[in-house]
Task: structure prediction
Amino acid sequence: RAEEEKKKWGGLLGARGKPDKNGFGGALRGQALRRIQRMADFSSGTRLAQIRYEAARLFVEKGVAATSMSDIADAVGITKAGLYHFVPSKDELLQSLIDWAYDIYDRDVDLPARDISDPLERLHFIVFNHLYNVGRHRTETGNRVTVVLDDPAVLTPALRVAVLRRKRKYYTLLRDTLAALKARGQLYDIDPAVATFSILGMV
Result:
């Protein structure tokens, strides 16, 4: 899987770390690509992948706060001590799921969008692929990609900072896209920041 992702996205990394045409620096893009190449495959069949899958399912069904490590161990079919062999704490497990959720958006929305120079085409791409990813991971009880991100109260201060940092990068991409449209006269007289929050609130 890592080789497939590397082949798919390797061409996005600018030569010698130069920024791409939309100002996304090579170093930052390289960091995102490395995260994607290490992305946990929830269907890989490994014990750790099974733990993450069942944890995400339980978080959707019961809520993060109401899900215990014992619940996750029971769902996986191992002892609680066995679970701690793979994940040291619930916070660490939450962090891995948050990284997984944002890595999906980096791979499917953020990175490819930054290679689209036309702001209107870029906006269409962002909204369409954002909605596609939300729908693709939705189950009868909820969405395992967004459940943790939509419930910041369950996060430790350090995890909240990590979530806000990655949210800010995505927000900035959308806001700058709308600002470029406004500069071209293709956006009604509305503040790009306000429009960004409106779009993110809808999708």
